[in-house]
Amino acid sequence: MIIKHELTKDQESFIKKHKISDDLLIDAQGEEMTADFIQKMSDTDKVIAYNTGPCSEDDNHNFKTIAGFCPQCDTGKIAFALRENKPGYLYLAGSRKGELIKVGSTSDSKDRIKNLNITKSKCAGFDDWELLYEARTIALGKAERIIQQKLSEYKAAYQHEKIGKLQNGSELYRCSYTKAKDAVAALESESEMEFTQINERKYLLTEYNFKNLKATVSRAFVEA
C-alpha cells in the first residue's frame, strides 16, 4: 500500500504537520473502530487509522487513534498513539483517600508520582498517591491501553478545578490493587508480553485492596 496515493491533500498536510510516519498508518476504508479492526491495527503495529467513519464532533475529521480518539479534535492524542510500541514503564498507583487505582505509563515513575500529588496538578483532587507497582516493557502504549481496556468496567470519571478550568482525571479505576495486577498478569499470559525491572511495594498492598465497583462516579473538586 502506497499511502501517499490514498491520502487527500488535507490528510497529507495533517500527517506532515504532526510528523506521523507512513508505516504507522492504516487505511480504514470507512470502517468503524470495532474491536476486530483495533486488533488488526495492533497486530500490524499501526497506531493511527485514516478514512475512518466521521468524528462525532466534526464530519470533516476522518482519523482515529488506536484508542479510538480523534487526533484532529485533540492533537495531544497523537503523542499517546505514537507511544504504542515504544519502551518505558507501566505503573499502578493508589490513593487511599479516593479509594482509586491509577494505571499509567512514564519514563520516570518517581517524578510522575510526585507530579500526581503536587497542589497545582493533584490527580482527581487527591494528594496521597503512592507507587504500588512498576515494570519496564518494550511496548508501553500497547500495555497501558490493553490493561485499561481490561479494567474498563471499573473506570471512574473525576473532575477537579485547576487554574479556573475543569480538568478530567484519567486512567482511574474504582477497583482493588489485586484486580489491577491481575489485568497485568492476564496481559502477560495472553500476549506473551514481557515485563522486566519489576518493582512491587508489597508492604503497602493490603491497604489498597479497595472494593471493585462497576458504577462510574463523577465528583468535582475546587482547588484554592
Strand content: 15-25%
Taken from the alpha-carbon principal axes, the silhouette is globular
Q: What is the number of independent domains?
A: 2
Strand order of the largest sheet: 9-5-4-6-10
Strand segment count: 11
Largest sheet: 5 strands, antiparallel
Number of helices: 6
Query: What's the pLDDT, averaged over the residues?
Result: 86
The sequence of SSEs as H and E is: HEHEEHEEHEHEEEHEE
Textual characterization of the structure:
The chain has 224 residues and is an alpha+beta fold. The protein has 2 domains: 3-82, no CATH class; 88-222, no CATH class. It contains 6 helices and 11 strands. The strands form 3 sheets. A 5-stranded antiparallel sheet has the order 9-5-4-6-10, sandwiched between helices. The longest helix has 15 residues, at 177-191. Mean pLDDT is 86; it is low at 1-5 and 220-224.
Which features does this protein show?
single chain, 224 residues, alpha+beta, 2 domains, five-stranded antiparallel beta sheet, three-stranded mixed beta sheet, 6 helices, 11 strands, 23% strand, globular, disordered N terminus
Give me the secondary-structure topology:
Layout: H1 9-17, E1 25-27, H2 35-43, E2 48-50, E3 63-65, H3 76-82, E4 88-95, E5 100-106, H4 109-117, E6 130-137, H5 140-150, E7 158-162, E8 165-169, E9 172-173, H6 177-191, E10 196-200, E11 220-222
Parallel strand pairs: 1-2, 7-11
Antiparallel strand pairs: 2-3, 4-5, 4-6, 5-9, 6-10, 7-8
